[in-house]
């Protein structure tokens, strides 16, 4: 329906379970929330119209009544569901190196220049030493907060 710029992902939360039947073990996919679908989208009148008028959609979690917009999941709730399903968040690809000079793009240290002292891939963070008041100060920043010089 030409809504790919507003509706990104539609998920049916499932998990793998092991069932034992007649002495045989087999892996079965079970729905975590039977009857529910999770939609990652930008909530606009158009995108909401498309979702609520999709055949089979009868209601929304958190709706106070007909015509009221649904309540969004908190980021940590969505993360927990995705983690339970085994869906990993996309990792940022970086090409930073230790001792490389970078410029801070945003935050309280915006426009400071420093050198990378540590790269934490699992946390998507870098530790940068910036020169503040004539002293080297370590600052922990997200990958998207720094750029190569």
From TrEMBL:
Residues 1-85 form the NusG-like N-terminal domain. InterPro entries: KOW (IPR005824), NGN (IPR047050), NGN-like_dom (IPR006645), NGN_dom_sf (IPR036735), NusG-like (IPR043425), Rib_uL2_dom2 (IPR014722), Transcrpt_antiterm_NusG (IPR001062), Transcrpt_antiterm_NusG_bac_CS (IPR015869). One of its GO terms (cellular component) is cytosol. Transmembrane segments: none annotated. Keywords: Transcription, Transcription antitermination, Transcription regulation, Transcription termination. Residues 95-122 form the KOW domain. It comes from the Bacteria. Pfam families: KOW, NusG. One of its GO terms (biological process) is DNA-templated transcription elongation. HAMAP family: NusG. Belongs to the NusG family. NCBIfam families: nusG. Participates in transcription elongation, termination and antitermination. This is Transcription termination/antitermination protein NusG. The gene is nusG.
């Amino acid at each position: 329906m030409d809504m790919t710029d507003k509706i990104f992902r539609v998920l049916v939360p499932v998990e793998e379970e092991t069932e034992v039947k007649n002495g045989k073990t087999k892996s079965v996919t079970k729905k975590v929330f039977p009857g529910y679908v999770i939609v990652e989208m930008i909530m606009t009148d158009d995108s909401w119209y498309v979702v609520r008028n999709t055949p089979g959609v009868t209601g929304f979690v958190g709706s106070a009544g007909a015509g009221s917009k649904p309540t969004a999941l908190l980021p940590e709730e969505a993360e927990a569901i995705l983690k339970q399903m085994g869906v990993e968040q996309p990792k940022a690809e970086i090409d930073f190196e230790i001792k490389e000079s970078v410029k801070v793009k945003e935050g309280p240290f915006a426009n400071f220049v420093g050198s990378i002292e540590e790269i934490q891939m699992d946390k998507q963070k870098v530790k940068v030493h910036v020169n503040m008041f004539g002293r080297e100060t370590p600052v922990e920043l997200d990958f998207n907060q720094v750029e190569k010089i």
